[in-house]
Design brief:
The protein is an all-alpha fold. It has helices at 3-14, 19-31, 33-38, 41-51, 53-75, 80-108, 113-120, 128-131, 139-146, 150-158, 169-181, 185-198, 204-217, 221-232, 240-249.
Amino acid sequence: MEDRIKKLIEEYIAGTLDDGQKKELLKLAETNQEIMQELNFEQHTMNIGEHLGRRELKMELNQIHDELFNKEIEIQSKPKSLAKPKWLGLILLIGVIVSSFFIFQKVATKPTPDVLIADYYQPFQLEVGERSSDENVFQSLIDDYQSGDYGAVVNQYNGLSINKESLSSDLLFSVAISNVEIKNFNEALTVFSTLDARSDFNIQDEVDWYKALTFLKMDDFQKLKSSLTLILEDKQHDYYQKANSLMKKI
């Protein structure tokens, strides 16, 4: 194969050919099987889908349709033996572009982490007064959490002079969630680990679920899947249904 044609093929795949050069290459490909095989149409169309989007891909299909229509007029005046290779090449090109479009569409519609977070994450509603004796001592911390001032919660917690592990599980959990909210993910995971060690059945299911969501916010899908798998091992888990739904989307 001539070097000039190889260069045309490379530029075609890269999407840098002008309209004239592109038509010249397509015309050569219709009658030369080696050129047709050399063209990586699937890669080209996937690049179209990724970088230009669906609208541009539709324009590409319309352009191919116009070329096909024009070829039909030319073919009517030529022997049938010459028409078959051109039809074959154009049909192959259209088939690959259409199939690649649907592949791109499937990939493009997969939920992004931001969409998943919006669907599954909601700050935990603290009800510390029902199960804890900490309410009067740490009322300001509770008030800050319930008002959504998560930075103030973390600051109060960090400034405590007492043994922090003496706090109730509810208050520790509120500190973990507050760290998640202000994107102190490592600090949040440290508090979650403290809660895991307690195995407090009153709040353990919430710890499992929000720890998994912390990995989602960190874009750590490997640890997210591991956390969801642990939840799915217990069909009686309070968050089993949500974990199962989220696992199917990642």
